[in-house]
Amino acid sequence: MGGYVARALAAAHPQWIEALVLIATSARGERAAAPLSGSTGRATFAGLSRRAIQRSLGPNHANDEALIERVRAMSIRLGADAFDWQSALDRTDIPLERISCPTLVVAARNDQLRSIDESRELVDAIRRAELRIIEGTGHLIPLEAPRQLAETLLNWLRR
To answer: For residues 60 and 126, what is the distance between their CA atoms, to the nearest angstrom?
Structure first.
């Protein structure tokens, strides 16, 4: 969701944005998803399932119980309605060619939710974009590889 908001701001107000970093995101639309149980009123939302969380994580972290519980707790705080709203949002309506600032697109080698090809599509559509791939992590790069991500960002910003 953060990538969508950042792209929308950068496209609509380029004068406000000096540089942009997009992490594990895509300009493609979301696949249709069934509403989460909490949003239907039939049951209390208990957070993302273990399987959904593991799918978000790279192989090095898929069985990290502390990380799985942390992500589940984050999903409970966010709530089912927010997940449903995010899933239904049309993310394809941002004119990427309007993004004019230097842009770093960060992808994860083992991301099962967003492919490297999707990241390359962003780089191809945004004229001053570069791609960096983080090894050994899945979709949740900031949680799985915070030091590697920070080093990647700092190296890019220092250029």
So the answer is: 31
DSSP per position, the chain: -HHHHHHHHHHH-GGG-S-EEEES--SSPPPP-PPPGGGGTSS----S-HHHHHHHS-TTTTT-HHHHHHHHHHHHHH-HHHHHHHHHS--S---GGG--S-EEEEEETT-SSS-HHHHHHHHHHSTTEEEEEETT--S-HHHH-HHHHHHHHHHHHH-
Please choose, from the candidates 131, 127, 134, the residue with its C-alpha nearest in 3D space to the C-alpha of residue 149: 134
Token pair for 89 = 């949002």
**Residues forming beta bridges with residue 103, ordered by sequence position:** 20, 129
| Token pair recorded at residue 22 | 């997009």
pLDDT tens by residue, 5-36: 898 889 999 999 999 999 999 887 665 454 55
Q: List the structure tokens of 86.
A: 């995010």
- The Cα-based distances of 104 to 14, 40, 47, 53, 127 in angstroms read 15, 38, 31, 26, 11
